Queue: 2 jobs
Job 1
Amino acid sequence: MDPMSRASELRQILEHHAYRYYVLDSPEIGDSEYDRLFRELQDLEAAHPELRSSDSPTLRVGAPPVEGLKPHRHAIPMLSLDNAFGHEELRAFDERIRRFLETSDEIQYLAELKFDGASISLTYRDGLLEIGATRGDGTTGEDVTHNARTVRGIPLRLREPLPGGIEVRGEVVMLKSAFDELNRIKTEKGEQIFANARNAAAGGLRQLDSRQTAARKLSFYTYGLGYSDLSSGRRLADTQSEIIATLNRLGFPSRAESKVVNGADALVEYVDEIQRLRPGLPFGIDGVVIKVNSLDLQEALGFTARGPRWAIAYKFPAEQTFTRLNRIFAQVGRTGVITPVADLEPVQVGGVTVSRATLHNYEDLARKGVREGDIVIVQRAGDVIPEVVGPVIEKREGDLPVPAEPTACPECGTEPTRKAGEVALRCPNRRCPAQIAAKLRHFVGRKMMDIDGLGEKLIDRFLETGILTDMPSIFRLRDRRDELVGLDRLGELSIDNLIASIESSKNRSLARFLFALGIPSVGEKGGQDIARELRTLDAIRSADYDTLVAIPNVGPHTASEIQEWFEEPENQRMIEEMLALGVAPVEGEAPVSDLFVGQTIVFTGKLEKFSRESAEAFVTKMGGKSAGSVSKNTSLVVAGPGAGSKLEKAEQLGVTVVDEEGFLAMVPEGSF
Ligand code: IVH
């Protein structure tokens, strides 16, 4: 084949696979095959420069710098949206629309993710990408065509011929994975890291050297149409959702989370569902955008000075914010690791008030360059512990002292040590009170021994008075009942409940017991893996390195940590004592799944489809716990016919209630 035909064939093949990958999310070939074809085209174009074209995928790697960014005036302004916070404001939006349209009918909406990136306008002329422009002030943006070409997912040529001009709008985002990788490289080079993916994406789009943009591996999703001059105003579609479907066909990616929904209730349900999905999405979102789906209704609704009357941005609580860092203090964890923690001016972030945030370790603290008195960026994403991202240097007032690493354990005064090759600073004193308190808090935790009624304050009080000294001493509390009842403010009932809870914890699964012991590197999953493979505590206690390292998911480091832990005489003593006190982890019954981990389930009423015993055993097998009474800690009540007071209590407390069928529907088919 002649070079010209081969080059055009390669372009078509590459664009086809990019479409399969970015738009359909269903690739037909692997990355290496794509790279091979890509390189073949690059080589061809290098050997025959006359074959280069403005729609060649090889442009995606970037080109030498431009001199500056030229202004670009938008054919139609790029407006912003009104915000809604909370369900009430969302319902008010729906009501406003129905009032304006003078209808009581349910309105149909297209609900989409609100991408947290940088908006871009893409103009295509006769099917070819002509201009990519940033939003700018909404009227005039910057011409970033050279950079737009490097963004995978932005088609260089439309997949169907389209004479005339069309402008497609959407958001350029950086995937969380690309963001983490970018910051990892920056850290290695000792450079200032990016505070968030939005800044990295927006900055990436405004580079003069498009090779820099290419290196940021940006992504693009479309959310609509701007200007179009298709044969005398012919509309591409009748609804917003059809516009998106058409744009998908033309080669523009969008997200499968988008949904057409009817009425306010469905909107509320949708925004809540997306909020649940938010932490697991591959990129950041800051809310949901809701648009009236019918284009006729959109036209009828029109615009206010601010933006369209037919759309709204439903905003989630921000995951990042600014606040003052008042003080940095050292906290000792259960393995003795000393962690710098920031004491913050309380601030709302991620939907909760945060007054403390981790600074991870002293190396990280030094790298971020945070100082006491700084205004800092605080972040809390999903259930993750709040962290300090970094200082806002411009806001620093005067010379703040550089925080120093502690030279003594803040709790017991022992000189800290650092293992070779580790960043963590540790208090080497095994009797350090802070370590013991942290170990006990972990031991009684919900996913560990799950002992109710032994909270942080009570543990501290019992440690101070010498009633608790270590893990085994928990199981001796029963013998000191009367003494405990005498302690101030502790009711007889709560002591009895505590003792009952301790007693029932004696038969937790071996997996939980292993996790509870606090062996370094052994988490919830590790406990399960080890219990499943070795089955008995004795086998685990006496396992040699080779046996341990043969367990799936247990690496060399973890294997030696486990071995060292069990070899420690102090740990051997504690295990023996606990066994002597009646602790008998249920061996060989490691949960086979984590379906119900952390959940307490109550069965009540007459059960007709399965026996109570088998259901309770099943819950244990799936990592959960069953209980005989309903409390605020109950996660789920399964009620059969004739259920009485427990059902009532559950309803009072707002605990989820299902019938037997409902329960069966929650579990994977065939597992029960
Ligand atoms: S529609 C007139 N849809 O949010 C309609 N915008 O305040 C304008 N954004 O700057 C935008 N995801 O960059 C729309 N699914 C989405 C969006 C979205 C993110 C951004 C957009 C705009 C801002 C609106």
Note: Residues 77 and 139 are 5 Å apart (CA to CA).
Job 2
Amino acid sequence: MKLVAVCAAALAAAFPAIAQNQYQSTAYRGAVLHFVADPATSDHPYEYYEDGVLLVGADGKVKAVGPATQVLNTYQQVNVVDYSGKLIMPGFIDSHVHYPQTEMIGSFGQQLLQWLETYTFPTERQFADKTYAKSVAKVFLNELARNGTTTALVFGTVHPQSVDALFEEAQTRNMRIIAGKVMMDRNAPSWLLDTPASSYADSKALIQRWHNRGRALYAVTPRFAPTSTPAQLTEAGRLLQEFPDVYMHTHLSENKGEVAWVQELFPESSGYLDVYNRYGLSRKRSVYAHGVHLRDDEFASLAQTQSAVAFCPTSNLFLGSGLFDLQKAEAYGVHVGLGTDVGGGTSFSALQTMNEAYKAIQLHKAFSDTPEQQRPLTALKAYYLATLGAAKALDLDGKIGSFKTGNEADFIVLNPNATDLLRFRMQRAASIEDKLFVLQTLGDDRAVEKTYLMGKRVYVTTGTGGYDYGNN
Ligand code: GUN
Ligand code: ZN
């Protein structure tokens, strides 16, 4: 014991940072909010402490959360960081995004299939060059941090090196990223195609290199049914059999023309989802982006297989794809997370994505046959979808998405008064629910003051319009 103490003291003297981090917990004091259940099914879905503390251990994990006086009485030897007037909550989780499309966000005038041909495929071609891929991965990860997003499920391109580039960059920040190499062997330009055999081999090598290495997780990623032959979908299913704990990530029923095309390409199938089901692609940790045009039996099938849907409102509106039926997903018990779908989506901000989600649900009511049964999207549900709901959709709620003791301390510090208008409007918001709603409606990256990954700050606004990402 004595020797250990002497060594520790010597280390601490030589490395003061180690002394601080290794032997002490840090109490972040401010308004603290996190979810413990789905607001759609629970009367007590969240914990909120107006003067609260999030206590983070030296291991980067949540040690306690609660009223400040109570936590600080229990744990006395801690650093206290004062974030009074700010809102501390779990980092946002983006359930569907394409990092190579960062540079083509906001491309004009096309719906899905033409948009892919016109903008997406030429953009993704550049990711054959790993140096290029790295440069975009840096921009992408900076945008995530700047917007308070601490985990994302990410599409690479067909090039395995695009995924290496992303994981390498994520590793330098200790960021939990789930990603995969796109599998696509038909119906795209020849320079962007792989083959069933190469997609299997490349994906397998990436799984072996990255899955569960640090915080990295791998997703088998067929782009969508139209760009994969039956032989390739068979290989995707084989990968899931061989590596049962990896993810499956693809697109589903986004656009009416796409749905009709899938039926032509797979005439034996009974619908779009049935194509994926036939190849064994639907199970826990399978995440389908969009699901705008799903039939009732398809919602039932998603629930039955424990697959999840990424609700991507900014993309569904921008590409004119349609309006996702969140209430139906809820009724069937399908797991849903919120996704930005950049670059079909128009913002990296989870707050802005919630804002557009609210509007999409409002519009859905306007076009519904049973408008009286349609409910508006509450702020509580929106923040849930971007945190604990997304973590459940990704089967990661044992690690992230809430401040449960032992969870990885990925959290953000939001400034509810970040702009003049926010400050003015916020004075008239009485309850925490009102405040959250105003924040999602008027807020964006300007409201994100700090972002932490496993207790380490990776992003801070400098208050003068500048930023510091800490590590690049
Ligand atoms: N479907 C197939 N590929 C894509 C893509 O890159 N973005 C979107 N939004 N939908 C797709
Ligand atoms: Zn997408």
Note: The first helix runs from residue 2 to 14.
